[in-house]
Write a structure and sequence with these properties.
Blueprint lengths: L9 E5 L22 E2 L5 E2 L2 H4 L13 E2 L9 E5 L4 E4 L4 E2 L2 E2 L3 E10 L13 E5 L27 E6 L14 E7 L2 H7 L9 E5 L13 E5 L7 E9 L10 E5 L4 H6 L2
Length: 267
């Protein structure tokens, strides 16, 4: 959720094309092997032969910790994808029971005009809510990068969170979980995913044994803000990847700075 207005139609900024979309966040891809190397964050990259392509070791979101309740007040969760209802101020999701403080109906979905479901190009949408959202200590927006920003965030520590599967092929989490990763440079991302197109509006992040999974698609990737008004700044959107936290394969995100003009135009 980003910069929700308190008057007039409220805009909800999420990343997935539909709230019911559950893949392919770091899942379901075949890939080519690439040579072992050392990235600039100090994390070792291994070939599939070294680690084992089918291994689920270190896949425990995967390798994550439980977030504190309302630690991320900008998180929004779908309650009823069919009827497009979203929840605010929620930490625990247990079937029909949850601890949400507020719910809103989605009345409009604006999908990016150049969205390509085959390659997940431009995997972003803007959702409009039926009523404004009043901000509190436990419900508040995340900041966007400044208009015109060209920051690549390379090497920066980033945080992803969600209620997705806690291991590849596993079940979703009942509570909000989070992980930390580091942003890789684009040449490394393209080297790893050299079997498919990788445009500049994508970015990737990696940490061994940690990753988003099915059910985390559309979630925010944030950095700690250096500005006085914002605690977190959203720099990415969970989109796709190879498996869930597989060794040597980073998660791929939509790069928010690439979409700032489009977001402004549609909000």
């Amino acid at each position: 959720m980003s910069r929700l207005r308190q008057s007039g139609p409220v805009i909800l900024f999420l990343v997935t094309v539909l709230l019911s979309y559950s893949g392919p966040a770091e899942g379901g891809q075949t890939t080519k092997r690439f040579p072992s190397t050392q990235n600039n964050t100090g994390s070792e990259w291994q070939t599939l032969e070294e680690f084992g392509e089918g291994s689920n070791e270190e896949m425990r979101m995967v390798g994550s910790d439980v977030a504190q309740r309302n630690q991320y007040p900008y998180m929004v969760s779908p309650k009823d994808p069919k009827n497009m209802i979203v929840l605010f101020g929620v930490h625990e999701l247990s079937g029909k029971r949850n601890d949400a403080q507020l719910s809103r109906n989605v009345v409009k979905i604006k999908i990016h005009e150049k969205y390509n479901p085959k390659h997940w190009f431009n995997d972003i949408a803007v959702l409009t809510l039926d009523n404004p959202v009043k901000f509190t200590k436990t419900i508040s927006p995340v900041c966007l990068p400044p208009q015109g920003s060209t920051d690549s965030y390379e090497g920066r520590l980033v945080f992803a969170k969600g209620w997705g599967r806690t291991k590849e092929g596993g079940k979703g989490s009942d509570v909000l979980r989070h992980i930390s990763k580091r942003i890789l440079n684009q040449s490394k991302c393209r080297q790893i995913y050299n079997y498919r197109p990788y445009p500049s509006h994508m970015m990737c992040a990696y940490e061994p044994g940690k990753g988003t999974c099915q059910g985390d698609s559309g979630g925010p990737l944030v950095v700690k803000s250096t500005g006085p008004k914002c605690k977190y700044e959203q720099v990415g959107i969970v989109s796709w990847g190879k498996g869930c936290a597989r060794r040597g394969y980073p998660g791929v995100f939509m790069r928010v700075t690439s979409f700032l003009p489009w977001i402004k135009m549609n909000t």
